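re the bet — no i am not wrong, look at it urself. input seq straight from the record:
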Amino acid sequence: MKKEIDRLDATPSKRLGPKCSLVGRQRTSGERRVRLSCDLEDLAKRAYLEFTDVSDYIWKSPNLIAHETKLELRKLPAYYPNDPKTAKLRWKLESHKLNRVFPYLIAVGNLFSVVSLFESYLLLLGGKLQEYRGVPLSSTKGQGVTKLFNYLRTLAVHPEEVPLYEQVQAAIKVRNCLSHASGMLAWSRDETELRRLQASGTYLSKEHRDMRAAQGGTYDEILVTESPLGDRLQVKNEYSFVVATYLREYFIALCGIANEKLVGGQS
């Protein structure tokens, strides 16, 4: 997965929109349009840097498990040199945490954090556009990402036309299922769609799916597992990692579209 992301991420600076200095020379567009264009470009650049930092953290965070595993294995002979039975019992308890609890919390926590970051940047984008157009966000129905996307549509900026929209929506649905339904599919209002996404692998971009198929790999970043309460959705940290890149690239492209529609167009 890391190599796949690196290949897609070779020239990120080219996706940060028009240079502010170039737009600034178009004096006929008016100072307000120039300011908005500069603000959108700055917001895209800030998002690129922050999402990239978060992505790096997500990729490295499982190192905690490897570190703690080494520590716990060293403790066993030190704590119980003549008591292998107790040492075995301790390792059973600790290995459960290291192999089950820690990976779950890392993967889910990272997914929650990066989706929350995306929502924050959408709100910042909405604030910039609200200031420019004078159309209040409060006038738009909905909540969270849905509300912000609806607001953008009122300004003729259509989120569904931006590449990776399907993967962004998938990430939000997965996050909501894990957050509001503890991953239990039967408790989620998006059960049918989540099952389709998991089975088809379309939570990954077409480019990623094609690369995976060429390598003979499978789509296993999201799994459906059995539990006493029914089928449960689980995510791997690799999914949180790829979502960080999707959300970054999507937001940068969205800023670019808003710039084109509201600054370069006739709005």
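see?? The beta strands are 222-227, 230-235. told u. also The chain is about 70% helix and 5% strand. so pay up
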